[in-house]
Amino acid sequence: LVGRLIQTPMGHTLAVPSFLWAHQIAAEWDAVQSLLQPTQMPCMTLSCTVLDQTSYHPEIYQRQVSKFVPTDTLCYWADPVEDRVLRQRQEEAWLRIHER
To answer: How far is it, in rounded angstroms, from Cα 50 to Cα 39?
Structure first.
């Protein structure tokens, strides 16, 4: 599969957000012996499902997910006294999301 684009069942180009995730999908493909079995490829299956299910109505999923942003542990603010630089970066990235 090196150098080739992989397509989801609905025809979208498979693209994942990290090298680690891509490496895991590659490992699943490398483990294929002769017959492709999606049940043996959970990362590939999950990635395709996410891309295929969210691509037609992304705004619906964005609205649903944005409800959880203020309480998500990923979006807890750093103490501006302890880490001023991190807090500034968080404000630049998250302020508009938190104001919704």
So the answer is: 16
Q: Is 45 left (phi over 0), alpha (psi -120 to 50) or beta?
A: alpha
From first to last of the 100 residues of the chain, give the pLDDT tens digit: 667 888 999 999 999 989 999 999 999 999 998 888 888 999 999 999 999 988 888 888 888 887 877 677 666 788 999 999 999 998 888 877 777 6
Q: What is the pTM of this model?
A: 0.58
Contact residues for 43 (Cβ-Cβ < 8 A; gap 6+) = 21, 24, 25, 28
